[in-house]
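Nucleoid-associated protein ICJ84_07605 (Aestuariibaculum suncheonense), 107 aa
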Amino acid sequence: MFGDMMNMMGKLKETQQKVEDTKKRLDTVLIDESSNDKKLKITLTANRTIKTIEIDDELLEDKEQLEDYLILTLNKAIEKATKVNEAELAAVAKEGMPSIPGMDFFK
């Protein structure tokens, strides 16, 4: 029993390291999003760090319109990045979880 517990602890540490490695890798996964008319383009990482924002000069003439574009486009980009982030981290966590009857939370 003690050996099983040590083995499980080793697997948990290994899984923790894989999760940390995946988080670092997600810093290099870029998500691109743009407004429907392509006047605003945003790139962020799968860890939801904004990398670039490109704004068409036409949008600079109307502050309220620019704000609306930023809110809509940033929210779409963040939603996409969150889905990628959660899927990647869930896959790593599920891979490292021991098989315990009745504890299949990650199915």
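The first strand starts at residue 30 and ends at 34. The chain has a mean pLDDT of 87. ok done for today
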